[in-house]
Fold each of these.
Amino acid sequence: MLLLLPADPLDPRRVDEHFRAEGIAAREAGCLVGLVDHDALAAGRPDEAIVRLPEGDDDVVYRGWMLRSEDYRQLEERLAARGRHLRTSATAYRTAHELPGWFAALAPVTPESLWTHGPDLDELEDRCRALGPGPAVLRDYTKSLKHHWDEAAYIPDVADIPVARRVAGRFVELRGEDLVGGLVVRRFERFVSAEARTWWVDGECRLITAHPDTPEMMPPPPDLTDVAPRVAALGLPFVTVDMVLREDGAWRVVELGDGQVSDRPSSTAPEALVAVLRRPGGVVQGGGA
């Protein structure tokens, strides 16, 4: 495996500090480590993006900052031109990274959701009416603004169209050029546990950790009975699925994401993540540091 990590913006010869421990763990496990300039990719300069690409392994896994699907495809093309291939194709990345790609497969185990095809508030009104009365959470295809809960995330009742438009307008304003796709309204459900982040390789759950926002709050192991066949059916090589316990005792999917751009909680050792990426068998609980 070749682990492709972001270069440090201040010293492009080194791995970005946030991912440096994973780079060390990968090298100690006998993996190759390459470097990519994330800023060049995000700025539309893909020809400048590949900083270091060691000769050898063709199984390339990116671990880094979130990329737009279009930028990831540019990375895929530049690597292919040099005879290297990402384990996760650009098509698979988009499926995992953007909610419309995975929602249908997980619909029975995740909150009801409807979305627009852009930041159009009139179209959002139609989706609110279709969802029906009640509270909802707003996001775009890849991200919510839960740290701006009252002003740009939570809609107390989608039937109150002026309030829904106000929340959505603020969301669009705050996301700015970072907004991806359209606006998503998700039925609000009341949760009673910390989130668990489950890590899946080739359709199998290989690691269960805390969520990076609450690294010291490890919930009980989630029940994957209903989730596992649905994740496997997506056929994605490396994803995370964040799960949480609803007040009625049901485990619910908060989000599925591409594992390459999913943050590792500080309470999980980098060696644990590298180990499952190398595809040995068995499920690791916690992967404590």
Amino acid sequence: MAKSEKQKLKLLYLKDILMEKTDEEHYLKMEEIIKLLSEKEIAAERKSIYNDIEMLRKYGVDIDSSRRSGYRILGRDFETAEVKALIDAVQYSRFISRKKTRELIEKLKGLVSEYEAKSMRVNKALTEKIKSDNEMVLIAIDKIMEAIENNKQVSFRYYSWTPDKEKKYSNEGKLRVVNPWYLCWDNTAYYCMTSTPENPTEARIFRVDKMDKVSVTNKDRSPEGIERFRDFNSLEFSEKHFSMFNGEMKKVTLCCDNNMANVIIDRFGTDVSMRKLDDDHFVVHIMVAVSKQFFGWLFGLGSGVKIVEPAEVVQQYKDMAKEIINQ
């Protein structure tokens, strides 16, 4: 790029330098700014930089100045704590591959100064472990969103892992074609709520990181499903479906020790129906998809939570416990 062309970009380079090199604790003096611009082959004088800084301020960039210390950026689109929270979310997201995790973390660090970025400790164990090997998962999400936006069906192959750590494709390896309705987030994984053209009102759930070769078709989604899923509440669905597994919907009553209140509210929210039973216990009424995953959650809570009704769910729970004991 010719020098004259670079000069036209001086204002943008100046903004980048201030965003990268300054924050509440770090300033740049005028001579340092001139030097950093010259490293980018941009000539600058004090007077022109004063004018440029005023232009950036008018644009909305929060630039603070001190005669003694120099210039610094104060306000940013994202606070340091917000960027750290986003980095943690990326690290804990299993559906994002190791490579993409590292790339996203570097991009997020670009939202703060280089000093703040260095202070953000990245948990390398999380970055390298429990991650999807599907490098195309974000592209799959993009394809699904495109299909939903344009009212189209999607095709894909779906797989699970074998004990030999090999992919085993369901449906004899053939492409599945479904109506995509919503993308749901639950327990560090992305799920796609769908229905089939044959049963357009019956919900089918697929984990996005196990969907391979996702493609948008030229066929419209089934019109019967549009009405069925119009007011779908993904948060409510994930609360009732443990690990997003389907099961028969039942109203279940639980008797809980008082110290289980945090667990119940964390899982079902503050709107859940709870009432005091005695000084040591409370009763909660929940709508859940009764499944092995639901029972597994209860097992993990031990004797602190007991199913009271309905009787058939109590029996199913006992049967599953006996089956495990007799293994």
Amino acid sequence: MPERAAKVAAFLRRAGRAGDGRTPLAGDAGLRRYERLKGPEGSFVLMDADPGLGEDVRPFLDVAARLAALGLRPPRIVAEDPVEGLLLLEDFGDDLLARVLEREPGREGALYARAADVLTRIDGAGAPRGLPRYAADEMADAAALAWRWYAGREDPCPWRDALRDRIAEVCGGPATMALRDFHAENLVVLGDGGLGLLDFQDAALAPAGYDLVSLVQDARRDVSPAVAEAAVARFAAATGRDRAGLDAALAVMGLQRAVRVLMICARLSLHFGRPRYVRLIPRVWGQVQRNLAHPAAAPLAPILDLPAPSEGVLTDLEARCGTVPTL
């Protein structure tokens, strides 16, 4: 038995789940693996986050505890071995918000309102200690990687510095906890009507509204403009934020996030061998353009010299899948 498989088997024995049936589950954009375990005592999810691949479950455990303390719904931790990167989690089932809306599109408004309420509660907790910072410098650095991975060039410095300055100017105010991947495929509609939260291990202190951008400017699905507007209005009203200022911050953060996602989609194909993400790029490019149309982000448009995602650009990223060995 391979060494990793032996460690997983030993963990499951200690957790009393050695005899359960095991079915692979779709993973996320990281290197973590997931399996569903089914046995006489019910269904659970195994998270296998191999430290040998650079994974670390301790941030997940930390943020899960923070979310639970707010009365929110991260998966319950059934068993854990942080040293080996193994967790046994409560199984929320398969009703991802995105899948529910494929079956029942009429529920979009109500479910996005519920998601906005989750963000309102997180925002109300202020800036908890012990989280990494994701502020103007970090955000600009992350977005600047798009020139290397998406455009194949190395010199975004004028745009990087201009973005940093724009974030600092427009997105000021107290930071709050941002889960940083808050969207319809990381939210689960639970049987009691609540929303289960997934994939939050990269949480950080970020400008208020960062997760709201992630929710309403989703790389994976088109959110109805009316639903997006209602979610933003609900968040603004509940948090007491000035709507004009919030809209400006959302445009600048939306631009940063969209440019960063261009990089992620390209890197997932070129380095990690996952070409399916390339086809998300046209939607994300549309988000780039819509954010640039807002006066708060418009000054960045003349120096955003990334190529539009023509079919040639997309097929080239797919054709070079898995050919870039180093990050």
